[in-house]
Amino acid sequence: MREKLADPEALVLVAVEGGGVVGMVLAEAGRAEDGRGPVEPGLWHVSMVFVRPECWGAGVGAALLGALKERVAGRVQVWTGVGNERALALYRRAGFGASGRRREIFGVGQVVHLVWSGEVTRATRRLS
After folding, report:
1. Cα separation of 40 and 103, whole Å?
2. Looking at 6-127, which runs of residues are DSSP E strands?
3. Cα-atom radius of gyration of the chain, to the nearest Å?
């Protein structure tokens, strides 16, 4: 995680409320061949989204993804667990759609590929 956060090319957005961090998103340049190939211009990959559990359902994740989409040009992709209903619902609300791709990741299980390539809509929560 430190390596990703230290990458000068990464885009990190942090949500702050009441003087404390309540969430963050990290996106990096998307790469061909499921991350093993060269950088694909116009593609961003969401590496991580974190929201404090006590803030779940309050719109923090949606606001972070909305702010991310406002700052990048092109497509945004993410892989998430097929059984992670909370994450799947968040990405669907943010306009991501299933690409039809799935794969097995050792130690994680089955993951599904989601992509956003649509119009930017304003986040419902303002980020500080």
Report:
1. 20
2. 11-17, 20-31, 39-51, 75-81, 97-105, 109-116
3. 14
Residues in CB range of 36: below 8 A, 6 or more apart: none
Tens-digit pLDDT profile for residues 66-113: 999 999 988 999 999 999 999 999 999 999 999 999 999 898 899 999
Give per-residue pLDDT as tens, 4-30: 776 767 899 999 999 999 999 999 999
Q: What is the pTM of this model?
A: 0.84
Answer yes or no: are the C-beta atoms of 111 and 78 closer than 8 Å: no
Interatomic CA distance for residues 44 and 12, integer angstroms: 12
Q: Are 103 and 72 in contact (CB under 8 A)?
A: no
DSSP code, position 64? H
